[in-house]
Structures are given as structure tokens and as C-alpha cells.
Amino acid sequence: MEEKEAYSIEAAVPTHKDSKLFDDDDRLKRTGTVWTTSSHIITAVVGSGVLSLAWAIAQLGWVIGPSVMIFFSLITWYTSSLLAECYRIGDPHYGKRNYTFMEAVHTILGGFNDTLCGIVQYTNLYGTAIGYTIAASISMMAIKRSDCFHSSGGKNPCHISSNPYMISFGVIQIFFSQIPDFHKMWWLSILAAIMSFTYSLIGLGLAIAKVAENGSFKGSLTGVSIGTVTEAQKVWGVFQALGNIAFAYSYSQILIEIQDTIKSPPSEVKTMKQATKISIGVTTLFYMLCGGMGYAAFGDTSPGNLLTGFGFYNPYWLINIANAAIVIHLVGAYQVYAQPLFAFVEKIMIKRWPKINKEYILTLPGFRPYNLNLFRLIWRTIFVITTTVISMLIPFFNDVLGLLGAVGFWPLTVYFPVEMYITQKKIPKWSYKWICMQTLSVICFVVSVVAIVGSVASIVLDLKKYKPFTTDY
Question: Rounded to 5 degrees, what are φ and ψ at 274?
């Protein structure tokens, strides 16, 4: 292996005048388009959260469920547009760039805000990696159990442990975590986006077939009725459903990082707004169809994971394909959420100890030379191992999704984008626009609080009947 010096993250390339190769910040030309940007967003948004939407609508009913979904889609679209304006300071074409969400908060708001943002953002990203590990293991187990059930003619209950599947997913992520950054993983995002549409369409098709088999739409205007569950369970279910829907739309915490992959002209903010409009529109349509048809198929007994609700019914091979698509999608989605956290830690560590940022050219017969960074290899491997171990400790799919969505929704999707936009655009205090934006922030804060309460209550109930590392299905 041949050793060579690696450029630091802050100065990724030396200063050059050639505008054909380098952007205005002396970094290699960005190549992102509205379509690659949309694929990054769709990969992040249309994740495993879509599978819990039928359950969420079951808690809320036919009236409030779709209304809440539209509410979250409009809020996400509006605040994402505000956040996109914060990528550059001042001039939208030549202003100073903010490369990360946290850097934008630091530059525009300063003070304690960037510390608070960092804590919430990176905790949320870490938690999302845990949630995706749990979701991937559930889908892998569903394939195994389906094959077991049919090979035994339904005589074997096929109880299996989730641990080997979480470990397998972790091993896969150790490999993909060596992709250096967002710019090098566009192909993985596009593949993951295709897979998300694949399993969403299969879930939708199965739900439509189930409705046709039932001969009617199930469900009610108010959702799960008291009597079927206690009043307390109804309240916690409603609160948790808000968190699940919030999680299904969550991607603001990586928006700036995605925007930093876009080429210009046109300005990055114009491309980002266009990609956001496309992505949110497409995902909302999918969410309404998948969540609505899932609830119509199963009614108040809608499962926490839509695809597991069909059990082992034929065509079981189609359900297996859908679950395989989920696993492939989550491989990419895990990386979309982990890359900003990787970059954040590596930037700090390399700034403090520059000598650790060395790369070695690894040559293998039949393969292109690979630049191996030992620090990146060790730190990212440790990251994946810890997310895998924690997933094995708390494998509660719906509860984890609800808590992550609730904790991250208000600060990352609403508060910081609103405050940065107000500061950057110098909107006068107590003006009509300022009052409207602050009112929106307060409403969303209340939604986040009640969703957190519901998710924590559900986790506490699950922990009462749970033993670590012994979960099986």
C-alpha cells in the first residue's frame, strides 16, 4: 500500500482558478441536479415510515388522519423552502455557503443555537440509523418466516430471533459506510428511491386487493374506539401517531447537506425548492394511497408495519419481493442519514489531530485502486456496531419511529428554519409575517410535545414485557 496525504475536509481541494473543474469555493464542481436531489430527498423521506401510516390513520380515523398528513406535508414543504434560502448568506448566487445544517445555524443565529441544533440534529440522525436497522431486520425476518411457513405447510410457527438479522444489516452498513461522502453516493440514493417506490406500490396493490376481497372499506371516522382499547391507550395511540407521521416527513436535518451537492447555475436554492416541491408532492400522494388503503383493508386492526399485516397469504413471493426492496432501500437510507454525522465527527477530529487524515492506496487485482482511510474505517465501523447493538436492545419499530419524529420535528423542521429565515430576511418583529411564522412555530411545538409523551408512554409499556437480546417474532 502506498501512503499519501489526504486533503482536510475544510479545504478539500487546493485553490484553483479553473472554473470548469472547481466551484466558487475552490471545491470540485458539484454535479447534483433536480433529479439527483429529488432522489436523495425521496430516499430520506419515503422510508420505513410509510409502512406505519395505516396504523397511524387507524389511531386518528378517516377525518383527522388524512388531515394531519396534509398538515405535515404543507409544513415540511414550507419550512424546507425557508431552509433552502439559508444555504448561502446574502446573495443567492455568490454568497458564502453553509455546508451543513449546523453551520447555517451557527452563521445566522449564533450563540447557543448551534450547540442545541447539533445535539438535536445528530442525536436524531443517530436514532434514525437505529430505527432503520430495526426496520430492515423485521423485513429480513419476514422473508425467512414466510419461506419457513410455506415449506412446512403451515405446521411450523417459525419463531426466529431478530439478532442475527440486525447483525447482518450492520455488516452490510460497515461496507457501505466507507463511501466517503454524499457526493459519491448518488447512485445508491437513486437505487434506494426506486426500491422505496417498489415496496410502496406492492403494499398499495396488496391493500387494494384486500379491500376488494373484503367487499368494503373498513375503518371509522374517529379511528380505534374506546372499549377496544382503554381511554389512556387511545390517547397514547393518537399522540404516537402524530410522531409517526412527523417521522414519515422528516428530512430537514439533512436538507443543507443535500443542497451542497447541487451544481449551479441555476442557483442552488432554485433547484432545491423545485426538488422539494416534486419530492413532497410525490411522497404525499404515496402516503395518502398507502396509508389510506392500508386502513381501508385492515380497519382498526391495522398493523404497525403494513407489509407484515398480510401475514403469509399468497402471493407470498410478492410480499417477499417487497420486503427485499425495503432492505435494499434502508441500506441507502441509513447512509443518507449517517453521512452528515460522519462528516461532522471527522471534521472535528481532523481539525484537532491532522495526522489521522492519511489515506493509503489499496490495490487489489481486478479492481480499481481504493483510497483507504484508517481513521474513517475504524470510526465508522464503531458507529455501525453501536447502532446495531442498541437496535438489539430496543427493537420497538413503531415506538422508535414515533419518538424520533416527535423529538426532531419542531426544532429541526420548524424552529430553526423559521428563526434563520426571519434573521436572514430581517423580518420586523411583531409584523404580520413575523406573527404568522411564530404562531406556526408554537403550534408545531405543541404537536411535538404531545407526540413525545405518547411515544415515551408506549416504550415504557413495551419495556415492561421485554427482555434484552431475546426478541423473537
Answer: -65, -45
Cell numbers describing residue 129: 440509523
Count of residues in the chain = 473
Query: Which of the residue ranges 53-57, 106-110, 151-155, 282-286 would you say has the lowest mean pLDDT?
Result: 151-155
The reported pTM is: 0.75
89 phi, psi to nearest 5 deg: -95, 125
Of the candidates 117, 123, 132, the residue with the CA atom closest to the CA atom of residue 46: 132
Return the pLDDT at 312.
45
Q: Which of 157-161, 177-181, 185-189, 234-238 has the highest mean pLDDT?
A: 234-238
* Mean pLDDT in residue range 11-40: 68
Rounded CA gap, 227 and 18, in Å?
A: 71
Please tell me the distance from the alpha carbon of residue 399 to that of residue 121, in angstroms, as a whole number. Answer: 19
User: Cell digits for 208?
Assistant: 387494494
DSSP track, 32-48: B-HHHHHHHHHHHHSSG
Q: How far apart are CA 167 and CA 151, in angstroms?
A: 25
Separation in Å, CA 419 to CA 134, 330, 412: 34, 32, 11
Q: Are 240 and 462 in contact (CB under 8 A)?
A: no
Decide if 101 contacts 117 (C-beta within 8 A): yes
According to DSSP, the residues that pair with 226 across neighbouring strands are 229
The conformational region for residue 205 under phi > 0 = left, psi -120 to 50 = alpha, else beta, is: alpha
At residue 181, the pLDDT reads 66
Characterise 349 by phi-psi region: left (phi > 0), alpha (psi -120 to 50), beta (else): alpha
Per DSSP, what are the bridge partners of residue 5? 358
For the residues 149-172, what does the mean pLDDT come to? 78
Q: Which three cell numbers stand for residue 30?
A: 458539484
Termini Cα distance of the chain: 46
Torsion angle of the four alpha carbons 57, 61, 62, 66, in this order, in degrees rounded to the nearest 10: -40
Span of 38-42, 214-218, 231-235, 250-254 with lowest mean pLDDT: 250-254
Q: Which residue has the cell 419476514?
A: 142
